[in-house]
From TrEMBL:
<dbReference type="InterPro" id="IPR036894">
    <property type="entry name" value="YbaB-like_sf"/>
</dbReference>
<dbReference type="Pfam" id="PF02575">
    <property type="entry name" value="YbaB_DNA_bd"/>
</dbReference>
<protein>
    <submittedName>
        <fullName>YbaB/EbfC family nucleoid-associated protein</fullName>
    </submittedName>
</protein>
<dbReference type="InterPro" id="IPR004401">
    <property type="entry name" value="YbaB/EbfC"/>
</dbReference>
């Protein structure tokens, strides 16, 4: 094999290894993510992990004044807000690791966007 060909193979192999390491770093960081959101009155607080699963639910005693339907709606809305914040965090991780304009970055961020869309200001909590 010529020196040029060997150099190209080494360069390509190093590039693939770097991309794999960056993708693994992104996956590790995403797996450790956590997002917490509160409702507007700060009576409901929901925490989700990097996969969007609820890992914590806190209700202030004043939440008892809500009727059950409103309380359920506040819990779900707050959960969705916490999940939507994951999308923003994942985009930032992708930018730092693999780049958001790479196929891997686009795929991961797009997956989170479709599962946990970022809400408008009407859904914003504190």
């Amino acid at each position: 094999m010529s020196d040029d060909a060997e150099g190209w193979v080494r360069s390509w192999s190093a590039s693939v290894s770097e991309q794999a390491a960056a993708a693994q770093s992104m996956a590790d960081q995403v797996s450790r993510l956590e997002s917490t959101a509160s409702d507007r009155e700060r009576l409901v607080r929901v925490t989700v992990d990097g996969s969007g699963c609820v890992t914590g639910l806190e209700l202030e005693p004043e939440a008892r004044r809500y009727d059950m339907d409103r309380l359920a709606a506040e819990i779900l809305r707050t959960m969705r807000l916490a999940q939507a914040r994951l999308t923003e965090q994942v985009a930032a991780i992708a930018e730092r690791t693999v780049g958001v304009d790479t196929p891997t970055g686009r795929a991961v961020v797009s997956g989170f966007e479709s599962r946990f869309p970022v809400r408008g200001e009407d859904d914003d909590g504190r």
